[in-house]
Design brief:
The chain has 235 residues and is α/β, with parallel strands linked by helices. It contains 9 helices and 11 strands. It binds zinc ion.
């Protein structure tokens, strides 16, 4: 651990699940008889925008009733106290890392609390519904959509993620199933770039075999103890 200075962390649904945010997979992949893939694609939005906006309005409202858990708070503490490089790449679209106090966070799949204007390409903080086609605060056009990376769209800021990975000495994956690319490939990329790799997960994932070490258990227990360990070796 002494030779570790730069850390890249990937977080997934498992860390938010303990705050009561259900995942597509937990829900059986269905929403009101629609496959989630059918409400979370650009094609679905073009075909039936009301359905898609309703789905995201509901999820945007739901996450605002949830609170960060000890795993989010431990990562926020790491962010405050770790003197080396750190990037928390999250696949989650909630704001629980930020509400716990973390700042070095990158949302590769977008954010529920942003709206993206397809007329002027600006993003605005958005906490209310979009179903009534509110005007964009920047250009005034009623062209806001959820700022979420849908199936078939390119994740955000991949260049920034790979730049951090190239300098990383440790890559840690927390609460991800390893099912969704490109994030599922990060562990292999990190290894080939020379980083140590650690997985913290509730159960073995599809990618467990690719990590140097896997620790199994709830994120709310594993993450605080790992953060204690890392910070104690910094001092
Ligand atoms: Zn606009």
């Amino acid at each position: 651990m002494a030779d570790i200075r730069n850390i890249v962390i990937l977080t997934g649904a498992g860390i938010s699940a303990e705050s009561g945010i259900d995942t597509f997979r937990d829900a059986g992949g269905l929403w009101e008889q629609h496959r989630v893939e059918d409400v979370a694609t650009p094609e679905a939005f073009a075909r039936d925008p009301d359905l898609v906006l309703r789905f995201y309005d509901m999820r945007r409202e739901a996450i605002q009733t949830k609170a960060p858990n000890p795993a989010h708070r431990a990562l926020a503490r790491l962010d405050r106290e770790w003197e080396g490089g750190l990037l928390i790449v999250t696949q989650n679209v909630d704001d629980l890392h930020e509400r716990a106090g973390a700042e070095r966070v990158l949302h590769m799949h977008g954010e529920h609390l942003n709206a993206w204007c397809t007329a002027c390409d600006t993003r605005s903080r958005w906490t209310g519904p979009l179903i009534d086609r509110p005007d964009c605060p920047t250009c005034g056009e009623p062209c806001l959509r959820p700022d979420i990376v849908w199936f078939g769209e390119m994740p955000y800021r991949m260049e920034d993620i790979y730049a951090a990975m190239r300098g990383a000495h440790l890559f840690v994956s927390i609460g991800t199933s390893g099912a969704v690319y490109p994030a599922a490939g990060f562990v292999r990329d990190a290894r080939s770039l020379g980083a140590k790799t650690l997985e913290l997960n509730l159960e073995r994932s599809q990618r467990s075999g690719w990590f140097d070490e896997t620790r199994l258990g709830p994120a709310s227990e594993l993450v605080p103890s790992w953060v204690d360990e890392v910070l104690s070796q910094q001092n």
